[in-house]
Amino acid sequence: MRILVAAHNHPALHPGGTEIFAHDLFRAYKRAGHEALFLGATNQVHREVRPGTSFQGIGDAADEVLLWSGHFDRFYMSQIDLYGVVPDLVELLSDFRPDVVHIHHLLLIGAEFPHIVRRTLPDCRIVMTLHDYYPICHHDGLMVRTSGKELCHAASPDRCHACFKDIPLDRFALRERHLKALLNTVDHFVAPSRFLRQRFVEWELAEDAISVIPNGLPLRPTPAAKSSGAGRPTVFGYFGNLNPWKGATILLEAARQLITEGFEFELRVHGGTPFQSEAFVAEIDRLFSDTAPTVQRRGPYRREDVAELVADVDCTIVPSIWWENAPLVIQEAQAQGRPVIASNIGGMAELVEDEVNGLGISPNDPRALASAMRRIAEEPELQRRLSRNARRPDDIDTTARRYLELIEAIEPERVKAA
């Protein structure tokens, strides 16, 4: 088969979980013997426009391209460049003629993309992996209220207007109808967690149109872990960008509390603060200053190094305060046999079962996080038991096979419907 994999960026430019997984799956499709093309949409944040074409190269790969999409309506998730991007997408589809288009996000590429595919290639199978809640929630797909960081359990025009008072209530109703109409062109959806699937079912996507396939990781050698010799303090690790929704301030507040109590430990914080507000960066800088040298600010890291970095800590912490779907960092930790302390909400609660392979904590609660960190450090048998029970994720090639089986099953349904 020819498979076009489309995401809202490229991991070389923006190494987020969605981009990384989409690119890993693209390479797994190729290993399975299929011809694949990776299309990453980007804008002026990472690339400048080049007159004459919407497409740009990325690295030396001939089967990976960027779509420059600087004209995009974030509210309606709509591609508004009808004279540039849309004709170029039609030309790409007509030239490559994929049998399958696998969409991983609608940002930048536009919610109209499935309709463009169907209009250009009527027999093409369209699959979309749902990685977050962008179609449901205008607040960056977080499903968190814009004031007070309250978790949001459902979207409605009234609730959404309460978060964005400058946007008329009726526009939220139009947004929902607009997106549902365009998503109706997708043959089948995949959710990496049961929680995310249920959210979209409640949003009224057809229940039988959404399957659950957990994300997988590339196979790589397991690095040798450092000995946790007697007298060495417990080492905790955080991996990922630092932003308000990942719980970075909660983590550092918990660390400061433990330091004040005289508790001995080490916390390695891996990740940067790209695209964050000056106020947030200033707060993070202050908290790092208050907690040094116990807390080590190690900065951004390469994907290739994450397995070794995870293997060098005793426990990974994922303190997100939004409904995370399927954080890759949890899978990376479990692949290395490491227990995880994670917020007990969303897809995190599916990956980390409290007292089994990690500890689940209430989100946005520094005291609860500090207590869990203390338990890991003070109860060696607990740490060993949680490590033994680590749930190693599927490798990405197994995940690709599951997707391919799903894709193969779409065609009879489409023929029957016709």
Automatic annotation (TrEMBL):
The keyword Transferase applies. Keywords: Transferase. InterPro entries: Glyco_trans_4-like_N, Glycosyltransferase_grp1. It comes from the Bacteria. It holds the Pfam family Glyco_transf_4. The keyword Lipid metabolism does not apply. This is Glycosyl transferase.
